[in-house]
Amino acid sequence: MRMSCASYFVLAALSLPATALAGEQVLEFKLVTKPMDVKITEVTNVEGQTVMSGKMFGVAFFKDGRVAVKDFVNSADLLKGSGPINGYSTYTFDDGSSITARYTGAIKDGRTKGEYTILSGTGTYANATGTGGFESVQSAFKGAGLYDGRLIVKTP
Q1: DSSP for 107-137, written as a single string
Q2: What is the count of structural domains for the chain?
Q3: Residue 22, SS3?
Q4: Hey, what's the signal peptide range on this chain (predicted)?
Q5: In the chain, is it the N or the C terminus that has fewer CB atoms within a 10 Å radius of its CB?
């Protein structure tokens, strides 16, 4: 049976993942982060309570082979090393495109886990929205963190 070019196009389109047709991308990555300008303050009369805020930097290595730098601000309210964290991250790719997200999460038992809400983007990710998450990974890095991350990016 012979098929027309239009039939091949329809079959090819049907075989694409639904997320590609809906303007959604799942970006998985490994992330290395390092504090750059961080202030840690011990709370008076509360043993083990610290408040931390500051600027941090990271590099994300995406499964598709791309690399992005991550500039972010972070705050934490920790009791004996555990407690909530939150901040804002901007991932900038080598083509100048970027994704900016707010995150919330927690540090518990030495592990960090959080969720992203994508607020905006530029270039390829102009007007992006979406979600995502991250989780710390055991590493031997001194003064730096290692994470598995995922951004679910929706573009118009």
Answers
A1: EETTEEEEEEEEEEEEGGGTT-EEEEEEEE-
A2: 1
A3: coil
A4: 1-22
A5: N
